[in-house]
Amino acid sequence: MAIARxxxxxxxxxxxxxxxxxxxxxxxxxxxEMYRRLTPKGVxxxxxxxxxxSAYEHFLDETGLRKTIKTLLKGLDTGNIVDLQHRGTAxxxxxxxxxxPANLQAEIVTNYHRLSKEFGGLNTDVAVRSxxxxxxxxxxxxxxxxxxxxxxxxxxxxxxxxxxxxASLFTARAISYRQDKHFSxxxxxxxxxxxxxxxxxxxxxxxxxxxxxxxxxxxxxxxxATYGLGEYIVQGYVTPDEYYVxxxxxxxxxxxxxxxxLGSKERKLIYGKDGRDTMGVxxxxxxxxxxxxxxxxxxxxxxxxxxxxxxxxxxxxxEWAKDxxxxxxxxxxxxxxxxxxxxxVTSLSTYSLQQKGKLIFQGASVGxxxxxxxxxxxxxxxxxxxxxxxxxxxxxxxxxxxxxxxxKAAAIVTDSGGRTCxxxxxxxxMGIPCIVGSKIATARLKQGQSITVSCAEGExxxxxxxxxxxxxxxxxxxxxxxxxxxxxxxNIGDPEQAFVQSxxxxxxxxxxxxxxxxxxxxxxxxxxxxxxxxxxxxxxxEKIEQLTSGYSSKTGYYIERLxxxxxxxxxxxxxxxxxxxxxxxxxxxxxELIGGREFxxxxxxxxxxWRGASRYYTPxxxxxxxxxxxxxxxxxxxxxLKNLKIxxxxxxxxxxxxxxxxxxxxxxxxxxxxxxxIYVMVEIPSNVILAKExxxxxxxxxxxxxxxxxxxxxxxxxxxxxxxxxxxxxEAVKSLIRSVIRSAKETKTKIGICGQAPSDFPEFxxxxxxxxxxxxxxxxxxxxxxxxxxxxxxxxxxx
Length: 799
Known about the structure:
Layout: E1 10-12, H1 21-37, E2 48-51, H2 53-63, H3 65-73, H4 81-96, H5 102-118, E3 126-132, E4 148-152, H6 155-167, H7 172-180, E5 190-196, E6 204-209, E7 220-227, H8 231-235, E8 241-246, E9 257-261, E10 267-271, E11 278-282, H9 285-288, H10 295-312, E12 316-322, E13 329-336, E14 347-353, E15 359-366, E16 370-377, E17 392-395, H11 403-406, E18 411-414, H12 422-430, E19 434-436, H13 441-444, E20 450-454, E21 460-465, E22 470-476, E23 487-492, H14 495-501, E24 509-513, H15 514-522, H16 526-530, H17 538-547, H18 554-573, E25 578-581, H19 587-590, H20 613-616, H21 622-638, E26 644-648, H22 654-666, E27 678-682, H23 685-689, H24 691-697, E28 700-703, H25 705-713, H26 731-747, E29 750-753, H27 757-760, H28 762-771, E30 775-778, H29 783-798
Helix pairs in contact: 3-4, 4-6, 14-18, 15-18, 18-21, 24-26, 28-29
């Protein structure tokens, strides 16, 4: 007589679907779903089988363990960490002390040999993973709550690993987590995964998300990668490579990699020397300085991520592995992303420091919040009972055993790990600011020291000395409306903030500051890269060698990094216009870039010297300018971000405008081709006086009020001696602005403003709207304030 499906001890992946969570748990149900539905679509999933929840229940019933566990957990108080640990240890010991029922053992062994035969061996290597029947639900992530055992071979080791997985349902962290999520300790059963190992010990592995785990931006795939088996990423032992791919352009055949960061990857997890279990080893310096994945592999993983997301109809958290023997990639696990995908999109909270503090060190930021408190320095999980609620947890790294105190922390800071390690995942879920991969936190911070942890300043999280004041602003997006007569755009300088800032109501980016991308993401003077061999500064050469590790060439580093920075901003606001201003460093600023002093002149007044358009067509600088153009073309043509427009700064004459556009054309950036628009900054009186002539060769104007005020009033805006004279509200400045707006209207040329004045002075913004300007580009933190002022002005006019 056939055994009822819900009573079977073994179900193969091909026999299960996502509907089988009650039988095989979330992990196994997802593996079965992907194996059945997505392998025909090209997503590779290693084969395997599930030891079902029925098998687990049979084990408890046949051995009398159920009664024993109830007795051991009676009167449980998860707030008492020591007692919680003792009870968990007692339950696990009880489970490990008894044998699996003989009929269950026989079925496991028979199916293991069947899997081994499929892969041409007697005792094939398998991964044995826990799969709880309530894990990976949309409202509660049980990821990491139970154990995983890798490179398991042979009947004896397999049966032991299965029993250990079942015991891990009662670790202290798992018991505490279920209690806090209001799950009964006995309403959840355990299934066990037995899956063919991918030989990532000889290649690489990692995790990926079909959503940005920090901002909640949904049109991106985040891929993390390290050498060896993937447990080191999840456990936070290593800082992995990080890649961002803009998912909206993948299906159109583009290659939209908008971010690549080289991780340190000091160690890797591989098979043990005897072919059993695993061991950690150091990664060579050469390999640490290389990216783990090729661009082609990153794009393949990103495409798979989107296939998985579309199938499940929700953002997903996935694990992948690369087989070192075959070179093939595999997806080895997928679950719903449970934090950012459930974020409230009807309100926007922003954190900002109100005081300056002494920076102690930096790391990778998790979340966008700020918190302050006293350091609780704990280096071993055995000491977690010493932790006090509200302190900042500082440690080397965390794993699920730390969760009982993590939820009590004001913030968390670790030495190691990347943005997808355990500390990051749990902090994100709990809404706690976290900094990972600092390398020096436990060495630099002292027990009881007062610190402020800020994750609100970009992808680099900052740890400051002392308790600093900070402000939290919350905007109700349901009630907020942008002005309709004048477009409100934004000034963006930091690509790392672009995803978060894209949630602020806007009509696009009126000014993307390329020089800030160069300064923060590239750091090297372009001519120092072009002429690296003749560079005399040895310290600069060493820094350049370090920064350009992992790239095919020195100039390739410049082009790729610049394209990624620009591309990230363009992707964040797609399909809205994003206007990138060509680099507008002055010579004294350029000289501060690594290697810059050997290529920059000393000017007495660089503010009105060799900058903007005049620099681009100077013969000695043309090769450097062409690197910029190659990066921009890469964003438009390779990434498919045609919403990117170009703006020429400090263009003194019509002839300069023509020369610059001729150079653009030589690099394939032709005005009008594929919708390319080229704007010019209005920041010199000549731009206003000859506005109608400039309109013949440019598609739009953007007023730079800072320089226009400087040159109209003859005031060096860097000089404190005449700072009192500098005033954008001066009637001479406003007269020129009024004039250029009228000229733009007459020539039907777009006109906006990206200068500082409307961000600082709402009255100035009102003046611009009254004059009929098309758009006002504001600093992100002033969009709401200025928009409200403009809406109020419009309301008064209606009355």
